[in-house]
Amino acid sequence: MKPIIPAVLIACLAIGVSSADDTASSTVTDDLQGKDGVRIQTMCTHCNSSNIQVGGLSQDLVPIYIGGYPILGGLAVSMVFNVLPADDIADTKVSKGPGEAVDPASAAGGTIRLTEAKPEEIPWLDLAVEAGSFSLRDASLRAAGPITPWMSGSIVFGMTEADPIDDDRDGWNDVGSLDREYAKARLLFEAGDDHRFDLGGTYIAEDTLEARGGFDVLAYTFGGTGEPSWTREDTLLDRTEFRAGWEWTIPSGGTLAIRGLKAERDQSVLSQLTVLDLGDFDDFFERFRIREENSWAAATWSRTLGLRAMLETGIEMDDQEVGALTLDPMEPTTSGLDYVERRAAHADLDWTVNPKLALQFGLRYDDFAWGARDLGIEKDDQVVSPRVTLQYLPSPEWTFRLIAGKTARAPKPIFTEVCCGQKYQRSHTSDLETGTTFGLESEYQPSPDFRLSLYAARTDFDDYLIKVVGWSQFYIQTYTLGNIPEARAETMEMAFNWSANRRVAFDGSIGWLTFTNTGDPDVTFQVTPPSFSSPQDQIVPISRVPYQPVRTGSVGMNLSLPKGISIAAGGSYTGQMLIQQYNEDPGAAQNVLLPEMRSSGDFWMVNLSFQAPIGKYLTLEGGVANLTNKLQTDLGDPTTDYNWGPLNGKSYRLGLKYHLDR
Questions:
Q1: Left if phi > 0, otherwise alpha if psi is -120 to 50, otherwise beta: which for 272?
Q2: Which CATH number fits domain 7-660: 1.25.40.10, 2.60.120.10, 3.40.50.360, 2.40.170.20?
Q3: Eight-class DSSP state of 35
Q4: Cα–Cα distance between 105 and 50 in angstroms, integer?
Q5: Which residue has the higher pLDDT, 521 or 530?
Q6: In this structure, what are the phi and psi dihedrals at residue 222, rounded to the nearest 5 degrees?
Q7: Does an H or E element contain 511, and which?
Q8: Where are the chain's structural domains?
Q9: What pLDDT digit, counting tens, does each position of 252-266 carry?
Q10: Which of 57, 120, 469, 661 could form a disulfide with 109 if both were Cys (CB 3.0 to 4.6 A apart)?
Q11: Range with lowest mean pLDDT among 115-129, 177-191, 242-256, 266-280
Q12: What is the DSSP string of 355-424?
């Protein structure tokens, strides 16, 4: 499991919420980190996973939308947040908790909604090149603007390359080399005054080569050094997405919107059996071949009711299929096609009682089906979720929101996220998760230059979904998805934004999370060990939910200097978390997974970035990531394969952007 972003693949975390036009931001990550307590913790593109925190919760409990369309999977999230230019996004709305029925079924933490900039709002031509540490090479070209009086569009092409990284100098790459190509196209047009259409597509191909794979027991046993050894792994990914939408402003009142999306992802994982020169065993062979298909469609209708109320209703469907062909000769039984289907309807009534009090009440219905098509296994469940938000404004400076709602989440196919030489137990045996959240959000804003917010919430989960190691044999982990019957997350977050003057702005956040198993501490997971042909129950003791940091935080500064120069400095803090661990002797027992969990370290990531115009059309950009050169201290320790900290140390980047504004 490799959840930490290599520093060369992310832009410096410029903590701030200003637009990319007046800060040193170069990606959406730059702009969003720290906004309203948002914590962009980890992204692993070749794992197809992302971990973005809102309301103290993260990952699937914080759905993300762009332009009204969901962002599906870590590779898609990474493209929007870390690859495309920051000024592709014009605005961001962060909703805490499940207070609105229009928010997705799983939104226990909250929802992030990104608004795309119109083509005429961004430079009509951008050409950027960049170089940096680890032989980073990056180039992109973007063109945007009106095509006819009723049509506009934008198109982006780019590529990124970087060498593998072994910053702890143990002889094994902690980050593989990168070879990425990507493109995005968007077309907007209007038919009269009432009809608006948008069409779009994205493509990204990303190869991660010579990365660290699984533990090499043959090299460890017969290599003669007695030191941990690892196989190498290549991950080849490509993803395409097409979307289309129509919005109609109804002359008699109201708005009707219909949107649809289709995405496909292909992944191939190539591994070695051993690094030892034993015939062809050190050659790469294809261990996994994965194909994922996502389909999503939604229709919404809204209109005002008099002067004080608004009604919004909608229907939605989404399907996910993940087919995995396991070619590992040691594990031939995990191939198959797992799926999740959802059909939903929702309605929200927003009523302004008086200038100080507003009430929003919603109800959503979700019908889930999931299982294994090749095995003829199907499960289904239906959930009715009431959602309520009560907003009170006692004075112009203060706002209070009381949020309550129910959420639901189906077990997604475990082969959605695969990497690092590990093995996986298919997920169709897991049950539906439900949760009930109560939260209180307060805001204090005495002036446009200062804003302080506080959010406290409690979520009680039934059958909380969690992926853990269910079996470890020779330090090769078998991951399984299962349910904690009863769990509770209690969180509190504080965030502030302060523009001290027209040149200096500060912001920051701090969060506390207590996530506990409130039921039986011995949790049962189903797992098929590599040496068995049938699944068996495995007990994993869990008192505190693992892989959840108990403290998080961020702090940053944006500085605007004369002549258009801007500098951003910031840091993000990740506190301790519980992680699983394994016996020190991989051959001591068939299953070396230990019942006790280990506490990881805490760390700060400090970053710096800048932009400096050179004449009318050129801008110099650069930055330093991981300024304090923080590196996880146990990267080569096989008794835990969870990378809780930075995988590489300090890195630099420097580039030029040529742009033609209107």
A1: beta
A2: 2.40.170.20
A3: G
A4: 19
A5: 521
A6: -115, 0
A7: strand 504-517
A8: 7-660
A9: 889 999 999 999 999
A10: 57
A11: 266-280
A12: TTEEEEEEEEEEEEEEEETTTTEEEEEEEEEEEEEEEEEEETTEEEEEEEEEEEEPPPPGGGS--TT-EE
Amino acid at 487: A
Amino acid at 499: S
Distance CA 528, CA 349 (A): 48
CA distances from 316 to 136, 191, 295, 298, 300 (A): 42, 25, 11, 4, 9
CA distances, 405 to each of 90, 316, 323 (Å): 29, 19, 34
Tokens in use for 189?
Answer: 């047009």
CA 166 to chain centre: 25
Q: How far apart are CA 632 and CA 168, in angstroms?
A: 9
Which residue reads 């259409």 in tokens?
197
Q: What is the dihedral sign for C-alpha 445, 446, 448, 449?
A: negative
Ramachandran assignment for 617, one of left (phi > 0), alpha (psi -120 to 50 degrees), beta (any other): alpha
Pairing state between β 551-560 and 230-249: unpaired
CA neighbours within 13 Å on the CB side: how many for 557?
A: 11
Q: pLDDT band at residue 657, thresholds of 50, 70 and 90?
A: very high
The string of pLDDT tens digits covering residues 50-94 is 778 888 888 899 999 999 999 998 889 989 988 988 889 999 999
Burial 264-281 (b: 16+ CB within 10 A, else e): ebebbbbbbbbbbeeeee
Q: Are 348 and 101 in contact (CB under 8 A)?
A: yes
Specify the length of the chain in residues. Answer: 662
CB 131 within 8 A of CB 434: no
Provide the whole-model pTM: 0.92
Q: What is the per-residue pLDDT across 408-434, written as a single tens digit (0 to 9) for each?
A: 999 999 888 887 767 788 888 899 999
Q: What angle do CA 289, 290, 292 make, to 5 degrees?
A: 160
Using alpha carbons, select from 562, 650, 211 the residue that is nearest to residue 421.
211
3-class SS of residue 263:
strand
Neighbouring CB atoms inside 10 A of 641's CB total 23
Are residues 372 and 338 in contact, defined by beta-carbon separation less than 8 angstroms? yes
Rounded Cα gap, residues 648 and 136, in angstroms: 14
The Cα–Cα gap between 37 and 113 comes to 15
Kindly list the distances between the CA atom of residue 460 and the CA atoms of 39, 328, 456, 540, in Å, as whole numbers in the listed order: 22, 39, 14, 21
CA distance 345 to 335: 34
Sequence-separated contacts (24+) of 128-132 with Cβ below 8 Å: 128/85, 128/621, 128/655, 128/656, 128/657, 128/658, 129/655, 129/656, 130/621, 130/653, 130/654, 130/655, 130/656, 131/653, 131/654, 131/655, 132/8, 132/651, 132/652, 132/653, 132/654
Q: Tokens 């033609």 map to which residue?
A: 660
